Amino acid sequence: MRASGKVLDIMGARRSTRCSTEQLEGVPGNVRREVLLLRTDPPSGFVNAAVFLDAQKGVEFKNFMRAFDSWIAGQNNKRRHHGFDKSEYGGRYTHCYVFKDSAEGGRLYGLLKNPKPDDRRFQACVVVHHTHKKEWRTDEAVLKGVSDWNDKEEVIKAIEEYYTNQ
Q: What's residue 15's pLDDT?
């Protein structure tokens, strides 16, 4: 849950941003899959999924929990969750994943990772961003925003540290 790095803010000045990952409470992983939340300190406007889930207790929260459970169990259920294959968006977002609350239109977007060097089949989905979807097709700006966090050094370190400290 502790990692640090440097990023540039909008004005170009350097500021310290710490990233951490944590297992989503009430959603235990298994030997094949796990859902993690990404947090930033100071908070990032785009990395908002953890803050959103912290505040939820209603139907939308339950629907997301069902989607997480379905993915962890290895179920193929595009109504609740799916990835993006090479035929979509020119193949640029195959490392992105979405969990759905179809009833409320809510979406949680994350990054698919294989964080265990000794077990390349193990997958973690690091949930980054929450939004409400209004159109049939996913807004590519959302996928680009999620994808931008994929290779950030502080995110990679946070994931590595999470699995090192388990």
A: 54
